[in-house]
């Protein structure tokens, strides 16, 4: 098996290291912070012990997985690595500095990857000596449990690098999708209306948070409603991603952040981790009950759903990813009940266009512009997939 180096011993770095070692790879975890490194080692030992306790591994198998894991603070120890995955803070200058060090110690054939979720791969790779062997590998948290990995070539990345890396990650039993190096890649781009349009409905007083969540779960079969999910992710994290995508798309109004969420962050109502967000997580707290009106619920679902479909259709129109990968990313990356393009076929392309046009006629905001692809498909009585 090839050798992997993971740069960064935080939650994501540990998760990637665990996935690789459980699939037979020798893994070296690098972090300059010795305390972080020690915590990562202790955490991985506890995780494997829990797997033994649950009967998923026997002790010999768990010990073998742990024996494949090494930990270091010294960059020169990465010299034998065939794949290096960086999983550190989302700071362009810091990442560039790390990759400059990595390039000096690994072989010229080693693949170098970033787990960035928001930064431009082209920009990171611009400072490298050989960016043809560099690409993005965006894992989802927690990496051992979430099946999806977005493979993101920079414009400098060689085709052979992409193909070799995808073979490796597929062998880790991950679901891989390829996406262009654009803000948010697939998932963080296409999912923006799930939060953004829910916040607009909330701000307009159409329904409260708990009713919107109820509608999306009962009418749409989503596992979590948007406000529950924002509280789970952290309102600070969700707001930062939205603001980053908005800025990266040159302030396209489709991705405009919500003042409501900004105020939540300013107040320290970050969600589960702070004990309060759109819901109160204090012991014995009593949260509101939803207004269980099926007509209202369907209208909420339809409005958020058509915005999601429109975003997915526009991503296909702009060749961000294939139709298959767009749907796969949303079902495997954020557990949507259906792929959005297949959902569009079920609802009917005409319904999608009419729904978007009704929103645009109401608000006269560019936020509600219909994707040209949907309009073209409607004119040609087309569909995304054949039944």
What does this structure look like?
By secondary structure, this protein is α/β, with parallel strands linked by helices. Helices cover 51% and strands 10% of the residues. The protein has an eight-stranded mixed beta sheet with strand order 3-2-1-4-5-6-7-8, sandwiched between helices. Helix 13 packs across helix 15 (340-347) and helix 15 crosses helix 16. The mean pLDDT is 97.
Quick synopsis:
With 387 residues, this protein is of the alpha/beta class. Helices cover 51% and strands 10% of the residues.
The major beta sheet can be summarized as: 8 strands, mixed
Side-by-side strand order of the widest sheet: 3-2-1-4-5-6-7-8
Number of strands: 8
Structural class: alpha/beta
- Mean pLDDT across the residues is 97
Which percent band covers the strand fraction? 5-15%
Global Rg = 22 Å
Question: CA-to-CA gap between the ends?
Answer: 41 Å
Given as residue ranges, the uncertain stretches (5+ residues, pLDDT < 50) are none
Helical percentage? 40-55%
Strand-helix topology:
Blueprint: E1 3-7, H1 11-22, E2 26-30, H2 34-53, H3 59-67, E3 69-72, E4 83-86, H4 92-105, E5 111-114, H5 121-125, E6 134-139, E7 148-153, H6 159-171, E8 175-178, H7 187-190, H8 192-203, H9 209-218, H10 226-233, H11 235-248, H12 259-267, H13 294-317, H14 323-333, H15 340-347, H16 349-363, H17 372-379
Parallel strand pairs: 1-2, 1-4, 2-3, 4-5, 5-6, 7-8
Antiparallel strand pairs: 6-7
Helix pairs in contact: 2-3, 8-13, 9-13, 10-11, 13-15, 13-16, 15-16, 16-17
């Amino acid at each position: 098996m090839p050798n992997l180096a993971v740069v960064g011993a935080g939650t994501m770095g540990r998760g990637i290291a665990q996935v690789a070692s459980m699939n037979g790879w020798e893994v070296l975890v690098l972090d300059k912070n010795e305390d972080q490194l020690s915590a990562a080692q202790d955490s991985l030992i506890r995780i494997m012990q829990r797997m033994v306790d649950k009967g998923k591994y026997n002790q010999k198998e768990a010990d073998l997985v742990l024996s494949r894991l090494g930990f270091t603070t010294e960059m020169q120890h990465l010299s034998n690595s065939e794949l290096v995955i960086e999983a550190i803070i989302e700071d362009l200058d810091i990442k560039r500095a790390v990759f400059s060090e990595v390039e000096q110690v690994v072989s010229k054939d080693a693949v170098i990857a970033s787990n960035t979720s928001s930064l431009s791969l082209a920009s990171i790779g611009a400072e490298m000596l050989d960016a043809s062997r560099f690409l993005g590998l965006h894992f989802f948290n927690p990496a051992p449990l979430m099946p999806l990995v977005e493979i993101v070539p920079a414009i400098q990345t060689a085709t052979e690098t992409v193909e070799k890396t995808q073979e490796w990650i597929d062998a880790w039993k991950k679901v891989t999708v390829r996406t262009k190096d654009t803000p948010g890649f697939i998932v963080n781009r296409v999912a923006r209306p799930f939060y953004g349009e829910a916040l607009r409905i909330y701000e307009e007083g159409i329904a409260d948070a708990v009713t919107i969540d109820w509608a999306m779960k009962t009418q749409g079969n989503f596992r979590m409603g948007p406000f529950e999910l924002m509280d789970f992710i952290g309102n600070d994290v969700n707001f930062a991603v939205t603001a980053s995508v908005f800025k990266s798309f040159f302030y396209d109004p489709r991705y405009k952040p919500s003042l409501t969420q900004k105020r939540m962050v300013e107040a320290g109502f970050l969600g589960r981790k702070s004990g309060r967000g759109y819901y109160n997580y204090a012991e014995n707290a009593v949260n509101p009950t939803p207004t269980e009106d099926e007509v209202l619920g369907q209208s909420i679902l339809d409005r958020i759903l058509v915005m999601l479909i429109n975003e997915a259709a526009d991503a296909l129109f702009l060749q961000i990813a294939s139709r298959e990968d767009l749907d796969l990313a949303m079902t495997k990356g954020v557990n949507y009940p259906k792929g959005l393009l297949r959902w569009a076929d079920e609802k009917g392309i005409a319904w999608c266009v009419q729904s978007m046009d009704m929103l645009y006629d109401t608000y006269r905001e560019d936020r509600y512009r219909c994707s040209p692809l949907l309009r073209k498909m409607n004119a040609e009585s087309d569909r995304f997939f054949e039944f």
